[in-house]
Design brief:
Elements: H1 6-26, E1 42-49, H2 51-62, E2 67-73, H3 85-90, H4 109-121, E3 135-139, H5 149-160, E4 168-171, E5 180-182, E6 187-188, E7 197-199, H6 204-212, E8 227-232, E9 248-253, E10 266-271, H7 278-281, H8 284-288, H9 291-298, E11 300-304, H10 336-348, E12 363-367, H11 368-373, E13 377-380, E14 383-386, E15 392-395, E16 401-408, E17 411-414
Length: 418
């Protein structure tokens, strides 16, 4: 066999290595995520599981002027934690390392209702009188060991203080574990584990949407045909990954609401539970929980905001802030996560202008993978490097957090911030 001269072989290897180097440089570059489109939806509603259920309650109470109703699976009363992680994990759920103290009436509904009225009087949440017109759908599995039924019974009692019994549908007759119930996808109904979606013969997404919006058409018999848009959550909360929100969220746009046809469409905000963010389970919460086929047949935009872990101890499971891991105002209108999601909803209902682009000198503290996801850094051979400066940030691991400072567009340096 004819062999190339050694000098030409060396040249070919050098060219190949150069091409590989260029490819490695180009691969980490991530296109800028779009913002949410300006749309004209109406009739806002919310739902959620677990921490997402608590978030749905918070959002529906704090912004009651603009919320039509809520669906809550395995959540609890408004501000149940009172800002205490111990209360959150022992009285409002059984998720702590200590003894679970959940008991009938243990959340003290009267005190939580009084706190709600106090916040309303201070105008840190909307007037409680708005709650009388909301429609509430509740689900609690008899086998739920994480948020036992006693907590959901207290949530039912909390809502009854502000609205009539006819406004509430409470499903508590299914031997379901702690998960989002479906009638087609997920683990066995009594199973406890990822992705926390269980096939219980109950279409929870459909039932809650039908309760909140009476008269819906049957869900589509076909696979979802709409468009799933990944958008930049950093436009609504500066440095989101430092505050328990992911760099990006998702919006499902059914065909009838796409291309400028959003007027008359409804908006539903679906909050995932702990360990159900897109990084943990991919798009399972979006695709498998049942919302999308109802959205297609009823012109419903579905917003899937995304929480993110905050390591090492504050919020390792990507829960929503319902116990003050990031913000003492977590349950009020000026809470960081609350205000961010409200700004997203405003954008989709015609009440919010496009957020301004972030300035050139902004600091971001997050895990290295979140920096990579947001385009502030890139990965090469399992290590992360700052975009623009190329400075090493260490291993691209969730357990390595770095502060990056933007000194120019798409140029970041490692360091501290004032």
């Amino acid at each position: 066999m004819h062999r190339l001269p050694r000098s030409r072989r060396v040249l070919h290897v050098a060219v190949l290595l150069a091409l590989i180097g260029i490819a490695l440089l180009l691969l980490p570059l991530r296109a800028q995520l779009p913002g949410l489109p300006a749309m004209q939806a109406s009739d806002v509603s919310v739902s959620g599981l677990s921490s997402g259920g608590y978030m749905a309650v918070q959002y529906g109470v704090a912004y009651s002027t603009s919320v039509k109703g809520a669906g809550v699976v395995a959540g609890g009363p408004y501000s149940c934690s009172r800002g205490s992680v111990d209360t959150a994990t022992t009285l409002c759920s059984c998720t702590g390392l200590g003894m679970c103290r959940v008991s009938p009436g243990g959340t003290n509904v009267a005190a939580l209702a009084a706190l709600t009225e106090q916040y309303a009087a201070a105008r840190s949440i909307d007037p409680v009188s708005n709650l009388a017109g909301q429609r509430i759908w509740l689900f609690s599995g008899t086998a739920d060991t994480v948020v036992p039924q006693a907590v959901m019974n207290d949530l039912h009692g909390y809502y009854r203080r502000f609205m009539g019994a006819d406004n509430i549908s409470y499903r508590k007759d299914v031997a379901a574990q702690h998960a989002m119930p479906t009638d087609s996808a997920g683990n066995a109904c009594a199973s406890l584990g990822s992705p926390y979606i269980n096939n219980c013969g109950v279409d929870a997404a459909g039932q809650l949407l039908q309760w909140i919006y009476p008269g819906l058409a049957p869900r589509s018999a076909s696979a979802p045909a709409g468009r799933l848009l990944e958008f930049d959550q950093g436009q609504y909360l500066a440095d989101p990954t430092a505050h328990g929100m992911a760099a990006s969220g998702f919006l499902y746009i059914p065909p009838a609401c796409d291309g400028g046809g959003s007027q008359g469409c409804k908006l539903h905000v679906a909050f995932h539970g702990c360990k159900q963010d897109a990084r943990s389970i991919g798009d399972k919460f979006i695709r498998d929980t049942g919302y999308l086929r109802w959205a297609d047949s009823n012109r419903i935009l579905v917003l899937f905001p995304q929480a993110a872990p905050v390591f090492p101890l504050a919020n390792p499971n990507a829960c929503w802030d319902w116990f003050n891991y990031d913000d003492a105002n977590f349950a009020r209108k000026n809470g960081r996560q609350m205000a961010a999601v409200k700004a997203m909803a405003d954008r989709l209902t015609g009440g919010g202008a496009a957020p301004p682009p972030p300035g050139d000198a902004v600091c971001f503290t997050a895990s290295n993978p979140d920096h990579v996801l947001a385009g502030r850094a890139y990965e090469r051979f399992f290590f992360a490097y700052a975009q623009g400066s190329g400075q090493s940030m260490g291993l691209n691991s969730l357990f390595v957090r770095t502060t990056l400072r933007r000194t120019a567009p798409s140029h970041f340096v490692v360091g501290s911030c004032p």
